[in-house]
Amino acid sequence: MPDIAIKRPEDVGLSSARLARVDAWREAWVKSGRLAGAMTLVMRRGQVAHLGCSGHADLERGVPMTPESILRIYSMTKPLTSVAIMMLYEEGRFQLDDPITRFLPCFKDMRVFTSGSRGSYETVPAEREITFRDLLTHTAGLTYGMMHANMVDAMYRDNGVDFQTSPGSLAEVVETAASLPLLAQPGREWNYSIATDVLGHLVAVISGQDFASFLRDRVIAPLGMIDTGFHVPAEKLARFAANYRKGEDGRLALIDDPRDSRFNAPRAIASGGGGLVSTVGDYTRFCRFLLNKGALDGARLLGRKTVELMMSNHLRGDMAAMGQPRFSESTYEGVGFGLGFSVMLDPARAQIVGTPGECAWGGAASTAFWVDPQEDMAVILLTQLMPSSTYPLRRELRVLTYQAIVD
């Protein structure tokens, strides 16, 4: 990975003394034993003004966390998949309000769960078909089996609708999901879901190229994200971090050893919703691309107007107005959703410092990023602790980074 040049914070309107609070915060989390290691990066006006690493990427082997460490970014894959499908949108292959049955007839005649149990349940016909915008905004009526919140989640688990572990193909898992009832009427509710994995399959169907190859050739490679992919090659394995959870005794418990991880070989499914590994340098390049409105180092992947559309709220109000109070990688109050990530609408309602128009998302292993076009700023948090709801890392880091702005 190329070296990341660090500029003087004061040159980009940030305070060195105030950014030092980020280092102290990160070190405290690691020294407490609650995180094995962590990394933070702050970029403003195109310059990286802060990069800090603490602790270990692999606690058991004593491998330190460094900017070269490769980590599971899980749902931070979703924005890249959203870029891929929007590239096809720019080619005129579909419109946002087109039904996805143009390309995936398995989603015809969907039904919506109303009541009952696994063995006996009631449904009603879907009032309309699922559109591309529904998938991009998580309003398609799909869900995640991992939610453990309702009967449709349970049906996903019973039928193997899991894009991380299924031995089947991407097409097979999508078709299985289409055979099950929807959680809600399309367009009616915001529910975090497998929608972005379905978008990955649509990329493959529309382009005629398998999704992993399309993402590599059309997005990852042009952006120079040299360590980002759906598995860790053998020659990079020494840089791959371990993944942890909070154990019963409060101590870290290893859940995925980097030496025998399922990420060590090509996967049966390239999960557009959560399958990538990456580095802080690579994801910084993706953030630059978003702040540059679709271009990076001479490579233009999307037009400015398309990126602005993606960064606009597409919900009727915030997620609280349309969503159910269950797991997501964002708060609900004061936060909307664009085409691939959350969009800050009202920091006061969200009860957190921020800027209207700022876009963000996170991953299941407590990773996070946000880009703030108004402040020309991006922040990245990388660590490996599941689930992301274990500690309020993201909210604390938001305060610590925004308070460092002094211009």
Automatic annotation (TrEMBL):
The leader peptide range reads none
Question: What's a Pfam family in this record?
Answer: Beta-lactamase
Query: What Gene3D superfamilies does the database record attribute to this sequence?
Result: DD-peptidase/beta-lactamase superfamily
Mind telling me which PANTHER family this protein's record contains?
Answer: BETA-LACTAMASE FAMILY PROTEIN (AFU_ORTHOLOGUE AFUA_5G07500) (PTHR43283:SF3), BETA-LACTAMASE-RELATED (PTHR43283)
Which SUPFAM superfamilies does the UniProt entry name for this protein? beta-lactamase/transpeptidase-like
The organism's place on the tree of life at top rank: Bacteria
Domain Beta-lactamase-related per the UniProt entry, residue ranges: 30-398
What is the name of this protein?
Answer: Beta-lactamase family protein
